[in-house]
């Protein structure tokens, strides 16, 4: 493996695949930080399951990205040899775990989007993407169910848990807008039937969220200002630290096999 | 690996009356006949206490054992290694859970056992008080620590106490990939760059002796295992298990091309086994007493996680109570309407 | 402050269609929904099952081991309940 950061020509298709892969990897990475520190043993195992699903999804998408990019690249080249600016994940998944409410709210928000997105992706004209989505959708459906049940318990639990859930929702809400943005390159892929149009999923996202929030005695924050830029490589400061951890060994021992 | 609890003598055994003695005889006869003891069966209080201590210590070891390896989940060098390590550490949470459940059948709640651990009144395996400094340590833990654990856990599958034996069957089945995972990491490092091989050698140097200590003090100094052997909780002595481990492990290390940090290590042709040098039991004693390199850090991490989760557990319980009240009210309303 | 104890649940798994649910272990959960999810997450990570039951441990009524003789001994003498109690000549064949 070459010693420097990856430089490859990013076609719209490759960029689209990498966005899916990066979302899954960074979320899985964040969730894996809980391992050994969860509020109860059963939940430690549950969070690790979700993290493992995410890492698995990332690997499938990276493997496909490697195939599309050619040149003998592997899944690890994409994960371990790209700079912050080359990562295309949304800002939501790189947000720190916070307290348990922060992690659960982040999970509900991303799952309420990703689950219908994957379901729509199963109809992609791209057979590989459709196949990956078919497997992943069953996983994300469970992630939504599990995090949704937790959010209901936190929202409608004690005064303290309600306040924490409320605060997490306010904190993370501005990162949801990016999920529904479409840049011109992605627009072409949507046009071609390769990727679903996220804008078409907004109603389902809102309905899912309102249902869970209703039971949790919470409401959608009123704020409308949204953060963005992750898909274009403009990230929050957090991603740099994630990659410093994630890529440390590959960067310190260029070309080594692990 | 986690039977270090059996090296502590039970000093609180009550004086037995004649009826108690007869029951104890019948109990021993069942054990001798290789019958399994189940939760509701009569058992001597000392048997219950010994098992509770051993199983809970075993469970604590699994939970604390997540921390040194957990360190490296976010830094695993490939996605394949990352998934395998996360799955392995997750398994340890599962094993802790199975073991706490087995201990609970003896009448001590998980909360009480947690409290004992967090208050520093319960022990866990000495090995997890050593730091994981490089990626090779993840290989060494899988290969050596899990290898030592398997030596200890396989006989426990036949332990006289049914729930413990059944938990161990499940643990052993799941753990079969752990040691292979570790050995594969070591093998890859040893076939890699000179830096990687040095990393592997350094890990073996640091983990070898602490791994030998995992089996507990030499038989000559631990007369305490007699009762556990009689109760068929522990079926092999510390030294027997340690020897088995050394005999199995040395050829594996040689295959890797690594050197064991023991100048006295030599094959005894006549006995057909590997002789090893003197273990530093003072170090072992210090680590057990809380003075290992990471004892304080590990306990602090466990305490912090437990404290940080308190509001979550409280909220979930409060929600369950609310739900139950609402269901009750709905039922009452329905009854009233029907009347 | 002593924390409230989180209830204990027993977990049963049907490993394949056609087989009965079998007890596999226990776990802690605040309510039935979370118990079912925890059972899935803890006990079916290696494709162990197709169906799950969770039962509050407190709901299980167990026979007393001290009653073993009273409960189970009387059945030992009822050998006429077993097919081998009856003689059928070999020539008749399998029955």
From TrEMBL, chain A:
InterPro entries for the chain: Aromatic_CoA_ox/epox, Ferritin-like, Ferritin-like_SF, PaaA_PaaC, PaaC
Protein's name in the database: Phenylacetic acid degradation protein
GO biological process, alphabetically ordered: phenylacetate catabolic process
GO annotation, cellular component aspect: cytosol
PANTHER family according to UniProt: 1,2-PHENYLACETYL-COA EPOXIDASE, SUBUNIT C, PHENYLACETIC ACID DEGRADATION PROTEIN PAA
Organism: Methylobacterium platani
Gene3D superfamilies, sorted: 1.20.1260.10
Automatic annotation (TrEMBL), chain B:
Entry's Gene Ontology cellular component terms: cytosol
Region (Disordered): 1-20
Lineage summary: Bacteria, Pseudomonadati, Pseudomonadota, Alphaproteobacteria, Hyphomicrobiales
Listed Polar residues bias regions: 1-10
GO molecular function, one term: phenylacetyl-CoA 1,2-epoxidase activity
Organism: Methylobacterium platani
Gene3D superfamilies: 1.20.1260.10
GO biological process: one example: phenylacetate catabolic process
Pfam families: PaaA_PaaC
Protein name: 1,2-phenylacetyl-CoA epoxidase subunit A
NCBIfam families linked: PA_CoA_Oxy1 (TIGR02156)
Membrane spanning residue stretches: none
TrEMBL record, chain C:
Pfam families, sorted: PaaB
Gene responsible for this protein: paaB
UniProt organism field: Methylobacterium platani JCM 14648
InterPro entries associated with the record: PaaB, PaaB_sf
Gene3D superfamilies, alphabetized: Phenylacetic acid degradation B
Protein name: Phenylacetate-CoA oxygenase
């Amino acid at each position: 493996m070459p010693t420097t950061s990856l430089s490859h020509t990013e076609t719209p298709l490759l960029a689209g695949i990498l966005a899916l892969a990066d979302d899954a990897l960074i979320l899985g990475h964040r969730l894996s930080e809980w391992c050994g520190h969860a509020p109860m043993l059963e939940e430690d195992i549950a969070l690790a399951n979700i993290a493992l699903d995410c890492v698995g999804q990332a690997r499938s998408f990276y493997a496909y990205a490697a195939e599309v990019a050619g040149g003998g690249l592997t899944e690890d080249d994409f994960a371990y040899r790209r700079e912050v600016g080359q990562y295309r994940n949304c800002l939501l998944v790189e947000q720190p775990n916070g307290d348990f409410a922060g992690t659960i709210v982040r999970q509900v928000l991303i799952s309420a989007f990703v689950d219908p997105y994957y379901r729509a992706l199963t109809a992609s004209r791209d057979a590989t993407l459709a196949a990956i989505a078919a497997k992943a959708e069953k996983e994300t459906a469970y992630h939504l169910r599990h995090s949704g049940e937790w959010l209901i318990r936190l929202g409608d639990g004690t005064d303290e848990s309600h306040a924490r859930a409320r605060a997490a929702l306010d904190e993370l809400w501005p990162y949801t807008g990016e999920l529904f943005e479409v840049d011109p390159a992605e627009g072409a892929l949507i046009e071609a039937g390769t990727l679903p149009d996220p804008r078409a999923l907004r109603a389902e996202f809102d309905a899912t969220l309102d249902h869970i929030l209703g039971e949790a005695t919470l409401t959608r924050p009123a704020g409308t200002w949204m953060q963005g830029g992750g898909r274009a490589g403009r990230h929050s400061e957090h991603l740099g630290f994630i990659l410093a951890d994630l890529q440390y060994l590959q960067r310190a021992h260029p070309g080594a096999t692990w | 690996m986690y039977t270090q609890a059996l090296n502590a003598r039970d000093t609180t055994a009550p004086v037995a009356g004649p009826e108690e003695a007869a029951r104890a005889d019948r109990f021993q006869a069942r054990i001798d006949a290789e019958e399994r003891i189940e939760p509701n069966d009569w058992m001597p209080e000392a048997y219950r206490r010994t098992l509770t201590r051993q199983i809970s210590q075993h469970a604590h070891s699994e939970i604390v054992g997540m921390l040194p390896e957990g360190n490296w989940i976010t830094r695993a060098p490939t996605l394949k290694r990352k998934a395998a390590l996360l799955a392995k550490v997750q398994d340890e949470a599962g094993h802790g859970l199975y073991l706490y459940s087995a201990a609970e059948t003896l009448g001590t709640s998980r909360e009480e056992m947690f409290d004992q651990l967090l208050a520093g009144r319960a022990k866990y395996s000495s090995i997890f008080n050593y730091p994981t400094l490089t990626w090779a340590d993840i290989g060494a833990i899988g290969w050596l620590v899990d290898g030592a654990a398997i030596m200890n856990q396989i006989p426990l599958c036949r332990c006289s106490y049914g729930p413990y034996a059944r938990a161990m069957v499940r643990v052993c089945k799941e753990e079969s990939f752990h040691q292979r995972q570790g050995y594969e990491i070591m093998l890859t490092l040893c076939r890699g760059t000179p830096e990687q091989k040095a990393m592997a050698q350094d890990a073996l140097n640091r983990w070898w002796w602490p791994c030998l200590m995992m089996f507990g003090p030499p038989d000559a100094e631990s007369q305490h295992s007699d009762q556990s052997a009689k109760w068929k909780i522990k079926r092999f002595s510390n030294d027997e298990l340690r020897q088995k481990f050394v005999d199995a492990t040395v050829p594996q290390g040689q295959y890797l091309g690594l050197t064991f940090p023991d100048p006295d290590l030599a094959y005894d042709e006549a006995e057909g086994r590997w002789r090893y040098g003197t273990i530093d039991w003072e170090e072992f004693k210090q680590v057990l007493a809380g003075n290992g390199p990471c004892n304080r850090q590990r306990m602090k991490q466990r305490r912090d996680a437990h404290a940080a989760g308190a509001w979550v557990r409280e909220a979930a319980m409060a929600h369950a109570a609310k739900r139950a009240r609402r269901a009750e009210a709905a039922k009452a309303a329905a009854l009233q309407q029907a009347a | 402050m002593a924390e409230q104890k989180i209830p204990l649940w027993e977990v049963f798994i049907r490993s394949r269609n056609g087989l009965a649910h079998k007890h596999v272990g226990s776990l802690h959960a605040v309510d039935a929904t979370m118990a079912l999810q925890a059972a899935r997450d803890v006990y079916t990570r290696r494709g162990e099952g197709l169906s799950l039951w969770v039962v509050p441990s407190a709901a299980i009524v167990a026979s007393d081991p001290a009653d073993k003789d009273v409960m189970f001994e009387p059945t030992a003498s009822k050998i006429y309940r077993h097919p081998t109690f009856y003689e059928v000549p070999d020539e008749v064949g399998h029955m």
